[in-house]
Amino acid sequence: MLLHLRWQILVNSLRKSSRRTELGFQILWVLFWLVFLIVTCGAFFGLTFTLLRIGRPDLLDLMLWAVLLVWQFAPVLFEGYSPGLSFREVARYPVSFRTFYLLSTVYGISDPAAITCLFWLLSMWIAILAMQPAWALAAALAFLVFAVFNLLLNRILTGLFDRFQSTRRGREAMVFLMFLLILLPQLLQFATGYWTNMRILRPPEWLLSALVPLREYSPPGIAVRMFAALPGPELGALGALLLYSVFVALLLRWQLRAIHQGEIYSEGYKPRRALKVRQGWRVPFVDEITAAIMEKEIRYIRQSSRMVLQLIYPPLIFLLLAFNPAGRRMFFSRSPEAMLGGMAGFILLTLPNLAYNTFGMDKEGFGRWLLCPSSIKKVFLGKNLTHAALLSGLYLLAETIIIIAARPDVLLLLTVTVAFFAVLMIQFAAGNLFSVYWPKRIELTQMSSRMASNAAGVATLLIMLALSSIGGMVAYATWALQLPWLPLVAGVAILVASIKLYFYLLDRAASYTWQHIEEITGNLGA
Amino acid sequence: MADTILETIALRRIFGPLVAVDNLDLRVEKQQFYGFLGPNGAGKSTTIKMLTGLLRPTSGKVTILGRNLATDSVEIKRRIGVVPEGLALFERLTGAQLLNFVGRMYGLDRATAATRSAELLEFMDLADSADKLVADYSHGMKKKTALAAAVIHGPEILFLDEPFEGVDAIAATTLKRLLQRFITHGGTIFLTSHVLEVVERLCTHIGIIQQGRLVASGSLEELRSGVKVPGHEHSPLTLEEIFLQVVGGAKQDAEVLSWL
To answer: What ipTM score was computed for the predicted complex, to two decimals?
Structure first.
């Protein structure tokens, strides 16, 4: 019944053409996932095979740790790809607690991460069967109990995640935390010069020795002991693994019982504060309406920790690079212009997040733009101006630091700057069009909610390819003709052309909006 | 002769094979409180979307405040206020920021926008939540915010799509007070609602739409005189009785599910 429901939802959603395009790209992602699955299964098989051949079955638990971590944490990271049916909804129907418990648990198997992990376990088991047939039966039992343990644990974590996700603040905090966790290792690398001196981040010996009992008595360690223990399979290990599973089953029972009985979570309230409405911002050189649009856009970014993080990440990397001794040696002394070029590229990489789905964060609010007595062109301009000001500000800050610190070649500096603004204009021109061709609601509370549609993502790649080709041709011509000023002249010509292109596509985007209001509002939920 | 504030001529909207609104001729005069009724899917929301620029008509003409909506939409939008179906709120702004923003978008200067925002928040009992993101508001609070956003610039005509849906009694009273005050001060209201009691109590004029066509229109008295219901020859009809008679959708006892 649930499968039929999901199928029906899919079929109904295909009535929209934009949804059909999205489905095409989703199928592409599924194909990627299948390739990933096949490759990683091969790796799991090969590694197990090798470990058994060299007589190190004790290291198999590390692979089971990988299975456990992926099974438990990948669904949280890729929440949008996981089955989205909330079992809180199922609890509203007259189903017994036993059925509810069973459905809720079994549904966890349909998660792509769970399927991947099951195939990894199967690959390991086939390798064991090939190398140590005597262990095959015990290994099958161990992996089965281990899989059940993982499934139950995953449902508990999903429940906790759901609880945390039940308030907007909780959801956003979670997304922020996840992004921070993803970015932290990279930040650490840049901050500590890890890539020039690997020893800095090597874990100390005491930490490694403290991890030994954790490995031994953890579910992965016990599972391996069940079949690989010498002289033979250990029944105690089976008991311990079952105990772990029963424990998580009971925890899950406790958690699901509350949900089945109708437990709800809600947003907290702020204490009362005196009402004071501040006047809106005044922005130099722009009229009142554009200033209002800019204020709204800045507030939207500022009031989303995820957006702030995505925006400050490139300059943060830049600063760490700039003030890191190794980075300084590598870039400042050799080619500060290349560093500025890299920084420009880094900043431009954040642009699709802001410009390729410019109404995505507005969601229902898109209708407000249509109700207001200003042209949709002005709205595009106001939004573009805000984002351009932010990105240009970052770029100019970086440029100033480089000029002060490294005194770069003026001609190259000018060339990079002109190229930056030319690409900026082209990206905004394309972004406006993409925003109305493939509008997509952005759910800031979902880790996997992308900032633009898949179609816009592919279009971005094509644009980058075209721009890189032009850059390559200019570079070749400069080298072949020995004309050092050519890139600057070409850059200025491209900038002029990109400004013309921007206004041409702006008109197209505005007229397309009016012709497809319904489709756009439908996609944005407005 | 009364001022015609809103007029549609042969307004039509089709979605593929479905004719949502079919040759609709409407006329709303100044200071009328016009209730636009109809069963689910009759074309009420489609009509109000076309009247406010949220949807392009397939054919026909809309004139608001003497101007053609197709050619003068910006000027018309400056003079109307709208509470649309989905409310169209920027939910990641606080209530105060949202009202301030909307006020400025309608051309109010910064000081006026801030002052009116504060007054509206107080009036709507939203002052306590002025610094909270709209995303965290309850449905009723969002409705009140949308209405505040619709009136902040002092429009001449208000278009309200189901303003009382999902609103508690206290909030509904606040909304009614605001709307009546708006009419008293010379405003005109075009409202769709399912709550017939509210429409009966508030509206001076009523239009009933069914399957995209206007099937009845006029003041409540005009409708009463035009509709005859057996057994009601001497007592005035309620709006619900008129509505059911015109639309004719009520199930008889014999038609009610036998197993229920």
So the answer is: 0.90
